Amino acid sequence: MNLASAIRRTIVFAFMLAAALSTAADRPESAPAPQADVSLFAEVAQVIDRARMDLISVRRDLHTYPDLSGAESRTASVVATRLRSRGLDVRVGVGGHGVVGVLRGALQGPTIAFRADMDAVSSTARDPVDFPSLVPGVRHICGHDIHTAVALALVDGLSAVRSSLSGSVVFLFQPAEETAQGARAMLDADALPLPRPEAIFAFHTAPLPVGQIGTKGGALLPGRDRVTVSIRATPSRGDLAERVVATFRSLSTIEPGGSSADPFVVTVSAQSQWLAAGSEWRITSDLIVSDPVARDAARARLDVTLSEVRGPDIGVDVEWLRRIPGAVNDRALELSLRPAIEGVVGSTGLLVSSLVSSTFSEDFGWFQEEISGVMYWLGVANAERGWAGVPHSPDYAADEDSIQVGARVMAAILLDQLRARKAW
Fold this sequence. Notes:
Helix content: 25-40%
Shape: elongated
Strand order of the largest sheet: 1-2-6-3-7-16-8-15
Oligomer: single chain
């Protein structure tokens, strides 16, 4: 089994198991009914539906001419031009090629944000769609073209009801997600305007049937850390380095769970090296951590070992680098929005997951550390057409009906939040 097949089977199995573990307890009877203005949502949805073919055309254009991470100039130009034509306040060049568009409603109210990443990845595999990439070696095989199209659909729908809209929606079109640099770069460039958004939302395409949305409170996608331990000692003290290596490897015994009460840490690698010039042993390890609680548990276990290693003639230094924060959903916010989602896709269209995928990560967590937020899975699979919708698989293809589904669902979420937070 090759790596792509292994990843596909792992992700699909995780979603199947998550569906099996979804219970009535995950859908409390006491959950409040959706309160968004029904007529306003209907008007937004109507605009989104009328724009269907135009949105598909834009998505296909982005798919045909993809931009690699850090080089999203063409995509950013397409996005910025469309935002300006819809009357949004637009900033470009935010944290690289990032684009920020602010849609201000005519009525006073809160500010909510939606993030869509724009970059593609390197791939020489055959593109299975009728509008293949024309950029050699570059393809959208993670669905960022779908994410961008959903965001543009929301802009179309919400801008059409601006005169009745209470509050503002900030659209963050992010570069360099695939290199896990774009979110942090946008934040460092003051991407979040004032008044600061009170909540932020995002989608990630997933191997769920088109028409289905996946959700989960707490850790959704894991973070990735790199830890370096330096032990100042003699070459003969390799036993100390091996003790640290053994501790890293033991972190996998923090069992997979999916909630902060049952976190997991996976050690990707743990290697030691004697640096003669520095008279030190250096141990490096990459970790996959489900959430901050998992990270704290791993660090506590490592600290115990390091306290035992330290001595009068032995110094120890630790560098803990958070490379990718992952995605950790606000539990209360996520739970409160399930009725709004079910109002669009029905109770069978909402999959409540209980697992954290350990196969890939996302830098959306940088935004979630600034403001409360939720990322959802957006189903893009179509079994009849042979599209599994597994991100980063060589034959990745996404059903374009997901654009309408995603835009309708997110419109319901945003309208719900604008109404609810205004009431606060």
